[in-house]
Amino acid sequence: MDALTTALKVAASGLEAQSQRVRVVSENLANAQSTGNTSGAEPYQRKTITFASTLDRVSGGSFAQVSDIGRDSSAYPVEFLPGHEAADDKGYVKMPNVNVLVEMADMREANRSYEANLQVVKQARELISMTIDLMRNQ
């Protein structure tokens, strides 16, 4: 396997991993205010994503992949909302353990990583095209 094909495959694995990361972050943001439906019920629990790197011995490429989509076990913040359907007997509601600022920063980082991988794909395709053109002109 040649270096340009390996670069394409490595970048494609990065695109897929970052795409899944964006989906997880989007779900967290969409549920940042999702409380339980009954008194004392658990709210939405923030999802986390973990990546792993696998080495392809044939090509020598290191490919990114999602190794786990888990749950954040941090404590739920509580708010005093006595009229809420999920309020306990003291009027407190468990809120999701989603920090919108953290999620937005994560989204921005995922977007930049996705764009970097996309740029690698574009460059590799351009180099392959140039190589084909050079071979035709000989």
Question: What descriptors fit this protein?
Answer:
single chain, 138 residues, alpha+beta, two-stranded antiparallel sheet, 4 strands, elongated
How would you briefly describe this protein structure?
The protein is 47% helix and 18% strand. By secondary structure, the chain is of the alpha+beta class. Strand 1 (47-55) and strand 2 (62-71) form a beta hairpin.
Please identify the oligomeric state.
single chain
Class of secondary structure makeup: alpha+beta
Helix content: 40-55%
> What is the molecular shape?
elongated
Radius of gyration: 22 Å
What's the rounded overall pLDDT mean?
Answer: 93
Main location: other
Subcellular location: Bacterial flagellum basal body
Protein name: Flagellar basal-body rod protein FlgC
Domain Flagellar basal body rod protein N-terminal: 8-35
Task: Give an overview of the whole structure.
- With 138 residues, the chain is of the alpha+beta class.
- The chain has one domain.
- The chain contains two helices and four strands.
- The protein has a two-stranded antiparallel ribbon. A two-stranded antiparallel sheet has the order 3-4.
- Strand 1 and strand 2 (62-71) form a beta hairpin.
- Helix 1 (3-30) runs antiparallel to helix 2.
- It is elongated, with a radius of gyration of 22 Å.
- InterPro entries: Flag_bb_rod_N, Flg_bb/hook_C_dom, FlgC.
- Keywords: Bacterial flagellum, Cell projection, Cilium, Flagellum.
- One of its GO terms (cellular component) is bacterial-type flagellum basal body, rod.
